[in-house]
Amino acid sequence: MPTRRIPLIAIVALLAVACGTAGGGTGSTAPGLAGTLVGAGASSQAAAMDGWKAGFAEVEPGVTVEYDPIGSGGGRSTFLAGGSDFAGSDSPLKAEEFEQSLDRCGPLGAISVPHYISPIAIAYNLPSVGDTVLQLSPETVAGIFANQIVNWNDPKIAADNPGVDLPDLAINPVHRSDESGTSANFTDYLAQAAPAVWTWGSIEVWDEGPGGGEGADGTSGVVAAIRAGEGSIGYADASQIGDLPAAAVGVGGGFVRFSPEAAGRIVDSSERVSSGSEWDYAIEVNRTPDNPDTYPIALVSYHIFCLEYEDQAKADLVKAFMGWVGSEDGQAAAAASAGSAPISDAVRDAIARSIDQVTVADG
Amino acid sequence: MTIEQSAREERQVRVSKVGDRVFLGLSRGAGVFILVTLAGVALFLFREALPALQADATEFRDSDTFLQYVGPLVFGTVLASVLAVVLAAPLAVAVALYLTHYAPKRLARTFGQFVDLLAAIPSVVFGLWGIAFLAPLLARHVYPVLHENFGWIPLFAGPVVPSGRSMLTAGIVLAVMILPLMTAISREAFSRTPRLHEEASLALGATRWEMIRQAVLPFGRSAVVSGTMLGLGRALGETMAVAMILSPADLFSVNLIGPENPNTIAANIALRFPEAQGLDVNRLLATGLVLFAVTLVVNLVARRIASGGAA
Question: Are A246 and A122 in contact (CB under 8 A)?
Fold first, then answer.
């Protein structure tokens, strides 16, 4: 479908160029910007983008931000084809995509920055344990979703939860039936943290893995299925699980419950893997951090944009918007609208330096 | 014949000639338009499906050949639809008989309108109803009983999915959705049973039930069959309700109450299309082509049976 959208996006982009009044110098993002910024990509960011659009409209009332949630792959290819000003993507630019970005953006290429961290909770429906929060080691979680642990009174679950009276009840693991970045991140966690049990790697479509369990459409479907069935357990966007209890997962010798701060630390504990530019902030998400304060199951989503734009107005718009999204206010706006976890101060500073490099091409 | 009369006749002929020509053109255009649309859709599906049909299995992430991929989907589609028809057909015939031969005239009309109203409910609403109301109810009170007493039948082998989002739930919701169509066609046929046949039967001492068996059912047989096939066609293509209700997996299974059910083609397209890229899109369209073919065959068979029975 991207091929059909490109003309519209191109028209909007042209309009943006026509309307955009040139802002200040390259070093500053002077207030009073005007124009339209067009993005496309990951649907995981759609809710956060609503918050960013609304928040940024208060800072820069003259700027309109448009975002088309066509999926990560479509977003990257649209951006690389010049159909959008930036892309949202659940994975950073690959090396060959960076090569393509040299055509799109000029000799400096494009960079990816992790602006959106969405924690994934392991929610369950087990009324008989009351308010006790279940603790699950990575091997136990993997065993449950690989259909090897099938009853709640399994000794492996009991070993993680000393003193908890576990019921004799069949486990009903719930997964996404649609193609999903949440599934990809959750299974990436299983593959990294429990490689002996989870041998299917990171998969977006559950059928490519062990199968089994109950499939439900979308985050809301998964949450509804867990809620409807006693003995069910599933993974879902942490902000969407409502009053369902979420398990504490085993990390670095302890167990950590999900919290925005704990999830935000995941970027800090991950290694940077650059596919091109030195300003790129792509990471290989580390699902087995040593620090037991880090919640390891989260979807990290990027914004991808050029370091150089052909006209001043566009460079200013991108710099202003990306700078604001990465700021404390921007991260708070996403947290409010999408329940995401804010990036830490250290990461924010590093990303801000990258965004500061956005400039206009010479000549 | 007076001059006046012949003049009037002439005028009528002339006027009707123009009208005929215009109407002929319009109706022929409409007919051609339908054919062109159908051919266009078929051509589009075929052209888009071709890359996926020619591609090697290793080019897909799940490295399924097309037959491996579409097999469980065709199975699931047919299973859900047949289930729906098996559940709905007897009910539709019974409702139609009640409306035409048992219910008081005034009640029959109101009641009939209520049945037709079922057809006006959007399928997404049926889906929500199935998920939020029917599935939990069945999972709590019906499926465990089925599993315990009839677990030796593979259909109810279990384990019972605790949320109730199984093939049987999807089949029941589909049955409710196709009920109005099937009832309407049966009712129409039953109400046209020649009065003389009915009265002859009654005069020979038949009870009302015997009369229905002797006169009404044989007369309406072909309508019931074609209504059933039309219902089957509708159930085959139903998307939204199934996508919402069914808990899908990539396998063949006749277990109607478990968590792992073969998905239907239409629901699978709805679930996968939004994030699909490249060849995956072609493959989804190829499954659409298969559904197109299956539905076409069902409709042709229905037409054959309906016309054969009436002759």
Answer: yes
Q: Which residue ranges form the domains of chain A, and what is each CATH number?
A: 4-116+304-360 (3.40.190.10), 120-262 (3.40.190.10)
Strands A135-136 and A35-41, by their bridges, are: unpaired
Strands (E), A42-184: 63-68, 86-89, 110-124, 135-136, 172-176
Q: Is the pLDDT higher at A70 or at A226?
A: A226
Whether residue B11 is predicted with pLDDT greater than 70 in this model: the reply is no
Cα A188 to Cα A184, A204, B309, distances in angstroms:
6, 10, 59
**Single pTM value for the model:** 0.77
Kind of pairing between the strands at A86-89 and A298-306: antiparallel
Q: Point out the residue among B249, B260, B271 whose CB comes nearest to the CB of A217.
A: B271
Beta carbons within 8 Å of A314's beta carbon, 6+ residues apart: A16, A17, A20, A35, A85
In B, which residues are within 8 Å of A204 by CB distance?
Answer: 275
Size of interface A-B (CB pairs under 8 A): 84
CB contact under 8 A, A213 and B260: yes
| A305: β partners | A86, A111
Residue pair B234/B84 in contact by the 8 Å Cβ criterion: no
Phi-psi sector, A339: left (phi>0), alpha (psi -120 to 50), beta: left
pLDDT band at A22 (very low <50, low <70, confident <90, very high): very low
- Kindly tell me if the per-residue pLDDT of A8 is higher than 80: no
Give the pLDDT score at A4: 45
